[in-house]
Amino acid sequence: MMMMNKYEAPAYYTEEQKEAVMKQGKNIIVSAGAGSGKTAVLKERVLRILMNDYFKDGRKVSISNLIILTFTKNSASEMKERIRKIINEHPEVSEEAKKLDSAYITTFDSFAQSIVKKYNYLLNMPANFSIIDDSVLDMEINKILDEIMEDKYEKREPEFTQLINDFCIKDDTPLRKSVINIYKSLQNNINMDDFLENYITDKYKDEYLHFLIDAYTEMIFKLRDDAAELLESLGEETEKEDKREANYISMANFLNATTYDELLTSLDIKLAMASKGVYTEEGKEIKTKAMEIITRIKKLVNIPSTYLLSQYKSTLPYAKTIIDIIKNLNKKVKNYKEVHNAYNFTDIAFKAIEIVKNNPDVCEEIKHNTYEIMIDEYQDTNDIQETFVSYIQNDNVYMVGDIKQSIYGFRNANPAIFKNKYDSYKDGIKGYKIDLTKNFRSRSEVVTEVNKFFDNIMTDDVGGANYKKEHQMVFGFKKYDEVKSTTQDYSTTYLNYQNTDYKDKYNTSEIEAFIIAKDINDKINSHSSVFDDGKLREITYKDFAILIDKGKNFETVKKILEYNHIPTQIHKDLSVKEDDEIFILKSLINLIIKVHEHAFFDNDYKHYFASVARSYIYKLSDDEIFDIIKNKTFNKTELYQKCLTISDQIDALSNKELLMKIIDDFDIINKLSLVGDIDERLSKLEYFINNAESLNNLGMNIYDMSNYFDELLESDEDLTMSASISSGNSVNLMTIHASKGLEFNYVYLPYLNSDFTKGGGSKSRFSYSSTYGLIIPFYKDGVGNTLLSSLKDNQEYLSTLSEKIRLLYVALTRAKENLIMINSFKEEYESINDISYSDMTNVKSYSDILELLRTKINITNVDLENVNLTTEYKAIRNYNYIDHIPKSNVKIKTKEVLIQNDIEEEKHFSKIMTKIKTKEMDEKLQFGTKMHYIFEIYNFNNSNLDDLKIDDIYKDRIKSFLNHKELQNINQAKVYKEHEFLYKEGNKEYHGIIDLLLEYKDHLDIIDYKTSDIDEKEYLDQLNGYKKYIENINNKKTNIYLYSINKDELRELN
Questions:
Q1: Phi and psi dihedrals of 748, rounded to 5?
Q2: CA 665, CA 467: separation in Å to the nearest integer?
Q3: Rg of the chain over CA atoms, in angstroms?
Q4: Is 188 helix (H, G, I), strand (E, B) or coil?
Q5: Quick count: other Cβ atoms within 10 Å of Cβ 432?
Q6: Facing residues of 130 across strands?
Q7: So what's the pLDDT on residue 680?
Q8: What is the Cα–Cα distance from 615 to 407, expressed in whole angstroms?
């Protein structure tokens, strides 16, 4: 039964947004550009469906009838809360909020897992399967491959022996790594079994050979066409008739070639020399550029096509051997997973596909109960996910995304899926296409500059989208034009510097960091303003973001900015291999094994003992450790006694229990306070504990766990965990990837000269391409590459370049108010009007792209004499102020303990955490935590007390704090809140956070907040450490104070 429509889209929505909310009846793809309100549209659509829609059989649609899929747990959680909020705002559907927690608003992985758990009986697999971490699975894969290779060596199979003899010089380690990498790449092949079974037949038949030559020819002719266009235009720029005619004759065959072999015979082009009067100035540039492209072509076209194919066909014996090894490996790994009932997420996705593919009744059940499938960030979909959805869809898939923001190729995202849907839905027959092009995030100047950039460099071939034709942004937030500063220039700034006179003393990372520091301080000191909540307010440090393609310069930037009194916060993913925990746990496990085996005095035992004794767990000096080893008094140490106690229990404990006992007995949690970054380190410990449980499920013991830590450290892959973006008044420093989904008023883009073609892709002789299959070299009096290698290299380069262009789009569209790019432009440059395919495929850095756009942008030259370059920022690291900063529990902010309490219980650390926090302390801690936060957001220079929505008790405490005589002139001070600094010495890292730093003309005041007690001697040591640090980078006298929040006592320390 159909009811009258109750829902109406918000009146302020654009027509395109309303269409995206209301349209239905077929599959829909919504191309939502940056800042176009994608998230708001999606939740409005959910509301509209819940208020209005019914199934064809009359059933009212509920939230449980929607499948809303995204790609990360955080995104799914945020989506669920946004939907909960909008539902609760509408009483007519508020009952739906009760169903939200059980609704399918989740990740692809979680949804596939729920399908497999529900229908596991159809696969004859137990319901209690476990998810195995890839790092744990890698151990077994390597072990199985070792067994396969040993078997091959024993059997002395001729083709295997030939493979080893031709390509393995010292040992077969590179070959083994290649096989593992190929096997892992094949995991994303929807038809992996068929691929392996039919590979030799399919990839060496005549039809495939023709396909390869055609693909190779097409690749080369894209360059030829650009060169031909230039050569044809050269005639108009050739001033001597005879030279013009001679040039035409020389290039005729090249211009008319239609096949690879014709092109091969046409490359001996001899153009007239650029003597005086032969060419115009533009003609000289055209000739040079055309011959550069022809040189690139000659590297690819140097032997007849028959030779190319003969080289490829000679790889057949190697292909047979590698395919045989991988088939064997795949079979044994599958068997291993089934025996242990443990799978990774990719396995579960394939099993979900198997269920819906082979069981029509299950498919119909899902379709019957699903009104719409919504996919957020659709540009990040991979082939497996797309296949899964294709089986359960019923012309009811709503896809929202932006191909221009597809930047997760390393996670197997396939932007071609989005593009193919987008293109095929244009006519409205297979589905509907909706474009959200209005940008409500950025000022018009930013929008104009972004369009200028990508009109010229993003195409279907490079970038994956025809930006100029279909994806231009439209300025949408008209309020910006009404509220703007009349003294500020909002146009994009390109800061150009030449470091010729400074390159011997400063590197690029230092120079560009100093340029940014000066620019930020200039903006702060000139009281620049930003738009905020309908009006202008004065700029603060948190309004700035510095986005870097790669995170290798983070520490340099942070140190230089902090040297210039700019508080800076680094936001980056956590590397499991960073910090001491992985080394400490590895050493403790190995030490316990040694004690268990009574292997007390070998070198490994001494090494493990010294590693733990020297760490923050015991902090023994080298002299103390030397005496223990020299006198063999290990058994008298607490470290040995604890290892002995645990070693007696290793046969009775699971890996997880063992790891928990190690963490508990060695008091690792509490000792984290000695090194800082507690939250990050706890997350890593939780990661290790969870994987210890995975080892249990696979029947592995403590010895396997020791190997697991070894493999983690030896692996080329860097395992990372997402980190949250914390708030605070500091400049935000992060990678461009980390900035996706965020926005900042001012965005800086430095280090644009970094070569993004280096380090990408596999450098192995043997590899895999989803398009061309196995990439195998040929052997004929030495090793050579086949045409497949060039095809794959070109494809990977285009893929990398396209993703880097999309990454640049993400970076530029984070800016609300202003964009600032820093680059060292070439002093001599070529004037380019239309950027060609060959221009773009010669690009290796963002700096190269800026050079191509040189005539289209306005450059501001920076005089480095005025930037105050100095190496003094390095002195902070060399000054030994760390002796004055005790690394103890006192350093832990009380609020950090409170915030993490619930999380720690989830991590099974509650027993330890209860030692930190007592019930009696709770009220004082809560008040102290709240006040600490209020002090962070309070404007000491221009009181915003009346604007703060806080209880009077907190306002009164702020007033009483400001009544202290030491703060009577605070409005004359430059205020720094939560000023964080970092010091490194060797492999150890020390860092502190100054709660309140006040800089006056003649002195500085450091004020540290404490919840209650300020009598501890450690506080004096801590503040003296801060004082030494500040005085080391500033010549002014520095005073130090402790403030007790609960007692309202401000005490100067001497």
A1: -105, 140
A2: 60
A3: 32
A4: coil
A5: 19
A6: 342
A7: 74
A8: 39
Q: Is-contact 768 425, C-beta < 8 A?
A: no
- Assigned token pair, 561: 């900015």
Q: What is the mean pLDDT of the chain?
A: 87
Give burial (CB, 10 Å; 0-12/13-18/19+) of 205.
Answer: exposed
- When pLDDT is averaged across residues 750-766 and rounded to a whole number, the result is 79
Q: Which helix (H) or strand (E) holds 875?
A: helix 875-878
- Residue 654, pLDDT above cutoff 90: no
Q: Provide the strand spans (E) within 37-127.
A: 66-70, 104-107
- Confidence label for 885 from pLDDT (cuts 50, 70 and 90): very low
Asked whether the CA dihedral 96, 98, 102, 107 is positive or negative, the reply is: positive
Q: Residue 234: CB partners within 8 Å, gap ≥ 6?
A: 247, 271, 279, 283, 286, 287, 290
Q: Are 141 and 334 in contact (CB under 8 A)?
A: no
Tell me the average pLDDT across 191-200. 96
- The residue among 193, 253, 192 whose CA lies nearest residue 224 is 253
How many residues are there in the chain?
Answer: 1054
Long-range contacts of 254-259 (CB under 8 A, 24+ apart): 254/224, 254/227, 254/228, 254/294, 255/228, 255/231, 257/224, 259/217
Residues 6+ apart with CB under 8 A from 643: 588, 591, 592, 595
- Give all strands (DSSP E) within 393-459, no chain letters: 397-401, 432-436, 438-439
Euclidean distance between CA atoms 695 and 616, whole angstroms: 27
CA atoms of 825 and 833, how far apart (whole Å): 18
* Average pLDDT estimate for 377-404: 96
Whether 221 and 214 have beta carbons less than 8 Å apart is answered as no
Nearest to 990 by CA among 620, 673, 539, 532: 673
Whether pLDDT at 883 is above 50? no
Q: What does the block give as tokens for 485?
A: 């500063």
Tokens in use for 87? Answer: 């539902």
Is the pLDDT score of 937 beyond 90? no
735-762 as b/e: b if 16+ CB within 10 A? bbbbbbeeebbbbbbbbbbbebeeebeb
Which H or E element spans position 284?
helix 281-300
Alpha-carbon distances, residue 663 vs 217, 283, 504, 899, 909 (angstroms): 61, 73, 48, 21, 9
Q: What angle do CA 678, 73, 336 make, to 5 degrees?
A: 95
d(CA 554, CA 583): 24
Specify whether the CB–CB gap between 783 and 777 falls below 8 A. yes
